[in-house]
């Protein structure tokens, strides 16, 4: 071997140290303050596009990098001419509709603005009621409906007057106005978790609307400690087995404001998925039971005494209501999204006869992930036909043929077809890129990028992509799938800490997840390997895997994470003694239960907004746990029953205005841990809600606590 002198050794060592410092500097060129600075690194995410009725243009709200607010932009159908069309001095755009092919009506503060393409004018048109939202132009184009304070209003463009169409709205009990359940006592609008609002009939004489009454729901206090004196701040919030919202479909005569309600099954136990008018004025109504077991389609034809049931599906193992429906272009048949097969698919049925069975239109080898969108004679939908990690837009000619994939960029693609079906605007994002608008011919070809949102500082950084792997479950015969992000400067022979998170179902996805993606990028730069697993309950792997989650929260899905840990520990660059887990909402639940039911599996856990007691789950959760009356054993699965098992490091994060997962539940678990002499940590935020991860100030503070906690217990020592 050739001898190396002391000075040569010193020089080589010095160069290696310098290289290491340089690499480290490059990797750590992103800080927590950078992630939550204003303006945001990722810029302004564009709104979904709204097409002109003649398909020549589409409009959207957006702003160029670094500019605050949302301005009004318009593009030609091919994306070649994109321009700012609103005045720089006007308020942010909150809603957009087209009055005709040349005229855009947009809502800015409490004022409607009228923007004309041919003249290039952007002028104030008229004021509307405070809090107006959900704009919809009448079929004739002379009126605009909107919702304010739970009621429907009509803006007349000729007289510039507002007319109240309904008197349904009753103000919320809450005086704080924040939190998911701070909703009106009664309103026209969606349910707490989903549902339609209202839709014009084709002739413009009738409006179908969704009325929600919450006055039978339990009153629950969420104390406001930030008021001058502590305020109980009650909201309507049911628990599993309690009375739920009363959801009804009404028909409003626009001329005289007369209303009638459709006679549909038990409105306190069934949610309205959607309703849609046929070209001839028949109303299709799609409902599902809160426990997801039953799903029914009805058609109401004006002049008939009551809606007619055209199809129903019952399955006791169902736990999701990911449905949707619409009329076939011929106005006679109905299209609907259903889970009748092993995968979600789109089906068609003839409502004029009860003897026909639904016919599958889409490929049974993959899941359809959206309700049907029909333009011209073409059906558009989202699906995971490429692989479970991606979502693409597909088109199907209703005259015949096979589905065709329209989008080609790897990642998540959400489509918005033009009225004539010739062009598709789609929102595309992936592991390293926030969502942007693109446009492409629906027949395929190269896509044209419409928006460029991130700040220059974002584009100068190198963002870490993910790799996707599969491995066997150690508990049964399933194959599990995971998304892994690794530091770019990994060194041979070195072992790295692993963070699972944010954990949840449907997380092994090639998409941009807002603040979560930014935090993951920071963690990878700090030297962590970041892993997300599609635990059971996730789409993309068939009905059995998806529905294995029913009644099984924090049981077999924890076994999925145990299998994932074993897989990661089999890799020679993973340190088996430095593995952590974190998540929010059900991800927080997984984090807590993993530490309590499998001590030592993870050395550190951070549980944010963790649902730790099924008794306090929401009324929507009956789809996965049913009720205490029907399945009492599930409701005994409280985390505090396992409190004595805690031996790993645990940090709770919780907002005190979290209506979805009450702060009370984490407080009760904390009390039990204290009684049993367990050591843990707590970070709370007095005004944060369930959406703390995207709330100004709270996001920076609580993510800072999360990262600091992992650094304290999992990061390598400076030595």
Strand pairing plus helix content: what structural class?
alpha+beta
| Rg computed from alpha carbons, rounded to a whole number of angstroms | 27 Å
Number of helices: 10
Q: What is the helical fraction, as a range of percent?
A: 10-25%
Q: How many strands? A: 43
Largest sheet: 8 strands, mixed
Describe this structure in words.
This protein has 719 residues and is α+β, with helices and mostly antiparallel strands. Helix content is 15%, strand content 32%. An 8-stranded mixed β-sheet has the order 36-37-39-38-40-41-42-43, with helices on both faces. Strands 13, 14, 15, 18 and 19 form a 5-stranded antiparallel β-sheet that branches. Strand 32 and strand 33 form a beta hairpin. The two termini are 32 Å apart.
Provide a compact summary of the structure.
The chain is an alpha+beta fold. It contains ten helices and 43 strands.
What distinguishing features does this structure have?
single chain, about 725 residues, alpha+beta, eight-stranded mixed β-sheet, five-stranded antiparallel β-sheet, 10 helices, 43 strands, disordered N terminus
Topology, element by element:
Blueprint: H1 6-27, H2 32-35, E1 50-51, E2 57-62, E3 71-76, E4 82-84, E5 93-100, E6 103-108, E7 111-116, E8 122-127, E9 133-137, E10 143-148, E11 151-156, E12 161-164, E13 186-188, E14 198-200, E15 206-213, E16 219-221, E17 234-236, E18 246-253, E19 259-261, E20 270-277, E21 283-289, E22 294-300, E23 308-314, E24 324-327, E25 334-338, E26 345-349, E27 359-360, E28 373-375, E29 378-383, E30 392-397, E31 404-405, E32 412-417, E33 423-430, E34 433-441, E35 448-449, H3 456-460, E36 467-472, E37 479-485, E38 496-500, H4 515-525, E39 529-533, H5 543-547, H6 556-569, E40 574-584, H7 586-597, E41 604-608, H8 622-625, E42 649-655, H9 663-675, E43 681-685, H10 698-714
Parallel strand pairs: 38-39, 38-40, 40-41, 41-42, 42-43
Antiparallel strand pairs: 1-2, 2-3, 3-4, 5-6, 6-7, 7-8, 9-10, 10-11, 11-12, 13-15, 14-15, 15-18, 16-17, 18-19, 20-21, 21-22, 22-23, 24-25, 25-26, 26-27, 28-29, 29-30, 30-31, 32-33, 33-34, 34-35, 36-37, 37-39
